[in-house]
UniProtKB/TrEMBL annotation:
Keywords tagged on the record: Cell membrane, Membrane, Transmembrane, Transmembrane helix
TM regions (residue ranges): 12-37, 57-79, 91-112, 118-137, 236-254, 266-283, 304-326, 332-353
Annotated spans, Disordered: 162-183
Name recorded for this polypeptide: Permease
Segments forming a coiled coil: none
Membrane topology, from the record: Multi-pass membrane protein
Membrane found in the keyword field: yes
Length: 355
């Protein structure tokens, strides 16, 4: 191998190890803290708050969206719940726009990767546009483009945060002996797991009547939050590592002049192209941000990076397909227009203010 290749490989490997360690710790810490917050602000409470139709609902919806770590696709099931609860259409749309864009993990990655100024700018733009878009869409009567079937209740089933029937086994009352006596030495029951990944220990004991009584011992709140955090991390890990790997490769091997030529400050078309590419690209923001960091180091304009991140985090082809079950085509078009407009506008605004 040539000395030049060895040098580039060392730079790429060093960048990969640094970003992998830093972003892993950041993700786990922020996700755990959000999990603690969500112990007190459950999905049911959020749904109840957004069901209010007063004027404060728009800002509250945006702030609630900023503390719920949903990606663009996982927001859809929650949106269906809001529709069935007859939530205000404007606040509901604000939540749809803000939740994936203001994900606390994304904001944390912005701060660490690009600095506090970029993170504050991104947060302010996403918050303001989400609120304005929700307000305007409601005033223009876009609620009529929600499909009627979206308001219908789904079949009852067990899911996280639902108020369905109890699924944990209950002990038989020991008031009468001699009915359905259980074996004196029952087999131990396996550990039960909840839909959110938290495990419960099931103990089987024999009471004085000779009946098997099952008792459930739940994990502590803090352990349950950690299990949920770790589960989320394992789901995101492939995307995070992919973004870091691609970004590290770009940092080590792609010539700076090549990126600066096609996506540098002087290229007027770079921002809209980056915004449009971001939607079908559908790389999670956790992967786009480390990738974008490498692009910036190689000469890509920060405005283009801003447009790329908003486009990929705010919408995706998968999300559009899922939204088809809720919205008519006119509403889908309005949704994509808001995301693309936000991405392009943020890119040009950042270039104007800080470029």
């Amino acid at each position: 191998m040539s000395p030049e290749f060895v040098t580039m490989f060392k730079e790429a490997a060093g960048m990969f190890l640094f970003l992998a360690a830093e972003l892993t710790v950041l993700f786990l810490v922020i996700s755990y803290l959000v999990g603690v917050l969500q112990e007190f602000l459950t999905p049911e409470k959020i749904q109840s708050i957004l069901s209010s139709r007063n004027g404060k609902g728009y800002v509250i919806a945006a702030l609630l969206g900023s503390i719920t770590p949903f990606c663009s696709c996982s927001t859809i099931p929650f949106l269906k719940g809001l529709l069935r609860a007859r939530a205000g259409f404007g606040p509901m749309m604000v939540f749809l726009f803000a939740s994936p864009l203001l994900n606390p993990v994304i904001i944390g990655l912005f701060v660490v990767t690009f600095g506090i100024q970029v993170a504050v700018f991104y947060f302010a733009v996403a918050l303001a546009v989400s609120v304005m878009a929700g307000y305007v869409l409601e005033k223009l009567g876009f609620e009529r483009y929600v499909r009627e079937e979206a308001y219908q209740m789904a079949d009852a089933g067990s899911s996280c945060g639902s108020s369905g029937g109890d699924t944990a086994p209950k002990a038989k009352p020991a008031s009468s002996c001699g009915t359905q006596a259980a074996p004196a030495t029952p087999e131990p029951a396996p550990a039960a797991s909840s839909c959110c990944g938290a495990k419960e220990d099931v103990n089987v004991e024999v009471n004085g009547c000779g009946e098997a009584v099952m008792t459930v011992k739940e994990e502590s709140r803090w352990v349950r939050i950690w299990h949920s955090t770790w589960k989320d991390f394992k789901q995101v890990l492939p995307y995070l590592m992919l973004g870091i790997l691609i970004g590290s490769f770009i940092y080590g091997f792609i010539p700076t002049d090549l990126i600066a030529k096609y996506a540098g400050e002087g290229m007027w078309y770079a921002i809209p192209v980056a915004a449009v590419i971001g939607i079908p690209l559908y790389i999670r923001a956790e992967a786009v941000i480390p990738l974008s960091a490498a692009l910036v180091k190689k000469g890509m304009a920060m405005g283009s990076v801003m447009a790329l991140i908003i486009g990929s985090a705010g919408a995706s082809l998968t999300e559009v397909i899922l939204l088809k079950s809720i919205f008519k085509n006119q509403m889908i078009a309005a949704f994509l227009t808001v995301i693309l407009g936000m991405a392009i506008g943020a890119g040009y605004m950042y270039t104007y203010l800080f470029g």
